[in-house]
Design goal:
RNA binding; Jelly Rolls; 133 residues; 4-stranded antiparallel β-sheet; 46% strand; 8% helix; 1 helix; mainly beta
Length: 133
């Protein structure tokens, strides 16, 4: 997790470029914490789209008197990603999880596939007959 305030408006989560694992970052909850004023606090996520262009998307608009907490149901992001307090003075706490998935050799090996299993399944299927007109 991290906390965004008037003095610390942004936090960037990034991984080592040399790391060959897949990283999944999920945002679970965004909430106002002790000391927050009754003002709109807008939290943005800054990342990259499929064309590798930087984009900023607001994900939460919190106000102490009407919506102090927002559940984002494990909103998945791909690092690097920056969380920014675009409006308000916070403090806003962000919580979630980070999963590291090692990349494995995805090559297809013929030894792992048995032709006998496929042919048995094909034999059990009834032939498809053309429709009568």
């Amino acid at each position: 997790g991290c906390e965004l305030t008037a003095s610390t408006k942004s936090y960037t989560f990034q991984v080592d470029k040399e790391d060959d694992s897949d990283h999944i970052l999920a945002l679970s909850v965004v909430c106002l914490t002790d000391g927050a004023k009754d003002e709109c606090n807008v939290v943005e996520v800054i990342g990259r789209n499929h064309e590798n262009q930087e984009i900023a998307v607001p994900v939460a608009n919190l106000k102490l008197s009407c919506q102090p907490l927002l559940s984002l149901d494990n909103f998945k992001l791909q690092p690097p990603v920056t969380f920014r307090l675009a409006a308000g003075s916070g403090p806003v706490h962000l919580a979630g999880w980070h999963r590291i998935v090692p990349r494995e050799d995805a090559s297809f090996e013929d030894d792992d596939f048995e032709d006998d299993d496929l042919s048995e399944e094909e034999e059990e299927l009834a032939p498809i007959m053309p429709a009568k007109k």
